[in-house]
């Protein structure tokens, strides 16, 4: 299943930045379908007693339901923007970055990482909610696999940006947000390996002997850091695009 999610993320990243409108529209529909499957899984967990079996002070079911509501909004937005995608034309994008724009390589790595993180976060919450079972073990394996893939994708992103620097962050808040996102992406997989080792699971042959509670607290804290930075990042982009009518900001990383 890890390979499936890697291919899905890569396919969406390529499709959303493809010059052909049918490819872009197809990627939007696939993204909407993938989000719907996540919403459906959360809906089933509400109905089959999975969430009801948790303690009343467990916030994870609430967080998953909040994610489902946000996903429904994004699905509606993706569907509503299909006619816009059909009508508009796009400019050619070079493979490597320029000082004024991100290249195709950076865009694909960015969106592949974004899709994988949007899969990893709810899946990690599901791992914490589910009782020990083959289903939970499968979710955990995929969650760990995605974390390892994200770490190496981040290394590729740094190498690509070192080879061809892209646009600078427009202000201090944007620079701080970018730093928080990179910090979380770099350290979340490491904390995940530590947490897996604390529960007796080896990752790539590594099984650190660390206490369980600090490892779990660190992984949760870094997850919250990423979620907060991601919401701030996405909110700023949407604000510029829809409220300020700044169409160029989102086009720096998306056709």
Walk me through what this model shows.
With 255 residues, the chain is an all-alpha fold. The chain has a domain of 127 residues. Helix content is 74%, strand content 0%. The radius of gyration is 19 Å and the shape is globular. The model has no long low-confidence stretch (mean pLDDT 90).
Order of helices and strands: HHHHHHHHH
What shape does the CA trace take?
Answer: globular
Q: Output the structural class.
A: mainly alpha
The strand count comes to 0
Q: Specify the biggest β-sheet.
A: none
Tally of helical runs: 9
Q: Beta fraction of the residues?
A: under 5%
Low-confidence stretches: none
- Share of residues in helices: over 70%
Which whole number gives the mean pLDDT?
A: 90
What descriptors fit this protein?
single chain, 255 residues, mainly alpha, 0% strand, globular
Could you give a quick summary of the protein structure above?
Helices cover 74% and strands 0% of the residues. It is an all-alpha fold and 255 residues long. The mean pLDDT is 90.
